[in-house]
Amino acid sequence: MNTTSKKSLLIFCLVLLISISFCSISLAAGKTLVFIAGPQGNVLWEQLIPQWEEKTGNKIEFINVPREEFDAFLKSRIAAESQIDLIMYDPQFHLDYYKRDIPADITNAFSDSKYPNIREDRFKQGALDFKRMAGKIYYIPINLMMTVYYYNKDIYEKYGIEVPKTIEDEEQIATKLAGTDIIPMAYAGKEIWWNPMQYYRLLPMLTAGNSTEFAEATIRGDIKWTSPFYVRGLEIMKWEMDKGIFTKESLGLDYNTLTTLFLQGKVATIYQGSWFYSEQLRPSLTEDFHLGVAPIPSLSPGIGQPCGCADVNISVYSKTENLDEALDFIDFAVSKESAELASKYFFSAIEGVLPSDPVLAEIVKMYDGIPIAHLVDHLWEPEITEAFKSQLQRLLLGDTTPIDVANYIQDVQDTLIEEGKDFGAILGKNYSY
């Protein structure tokens, strides 16, 4: 072999070795997924993501976006054609995002042997109900949430307040705290999406546990917003304001201020969800604060039906180039080990996994055997949700009446019908006008 041939062979071998080295480095480095998430469940993702990265050699760029900025941020990133692989967002966006083809259809993953933890029978009954669109699954629930009353035991004992068992019982809280600077009951009214949440605690009882079915019938146009049970719920909320149970002052409270006032003994009772305890109360509780938890009062003696949903949901972006890796992460996130970790912070959506926290365990126990009513704004068009928020705020401030609120929302829906709006696919049924 002449000198030229030897040099050529040497160069070829060097190039081959360099190529192999780069391939090895590339394989070792794995892929990087982009995960865009709202504020729910951050404490869980902060622990699960490093574990999955170590297990697989892949990486996740975790982008956490405040709730009020999430929708605009996600849509701007989609418009810019930036990388997105995994999305976790508030359930109220399900219908809108489905119609925009944002989440991928992941129904086949439930029968794919590569993802042994993604199986319908592993999820608690009802957890997947609102993840179906036109009979297919687009979202995976990580946790469930339900609503309760939190109260200050010391205030209740000092003023002789009884835990309300009916809505009418709430009046004695306001009566016994009259003349004090303690707010009887409050919620995060400054964040007006909580106004519909206030309403939802009543709707299941007003519809005999059939609020989801009534909401679907309303979407179809079979039931009007001016129907007696809708108006009655608005009347009860106005009554609570008129009696001083909830106050106009509470309408100006955000999450952090509400938490601070409650822990300072300036609010006796708050209506919130189970996530509020995990994210807001528990980190700030001290040994000298005696927290009480009570079920939603009923319209008649007994326990009211809680409203709730699968609150932390994860989906795969429909245009991801890393489908297998994204599904592998979801499979890891719903494994038994991950679910047990999640149970430290909220109610896992996985069957057989109970909360390890005593307060969360108490909430589960008090509602044992009572089905959770789904939050019905997940069925509504964004225009109806926004109308409901703003009109309830006006009602609570005394600027309108229950029947006027109902008529206003009905007018919004009638306009949508005239425009030919498609209200999407819910629970496998296509609703359109």
From TrEMBL:
Sorted UniProt keywords: Cell membrane, Lipoprotein, Membrane, Palmitate, Signal
GO cellular component, one term: periplasmic space
Family named by the database record: Belongs to the bacterial solute-binding protein 1 family.
Signal peptide limits: 1-28
Keyword field contains Glycoprotein: no
Pfam families reported for this sequence: SBP_bac_1
Gene: msmE_2
Annotated localization: Periplasm
Protein name in UniProt: Multiple sugar-binding protein
Keyword Zinc-finger annotated: no
First-listed, main subcellular location of the protein, grouped into a coarse class: periplasm
PANTHER family for the chain: ARABINOSE-BINDING PROTEIN-RELATED (PTHR43649), POLYGALACTURONAN_RHAMNOGALACTURONAN-BINDING PROTEIN YTCQ (PTHR43649:SF33)
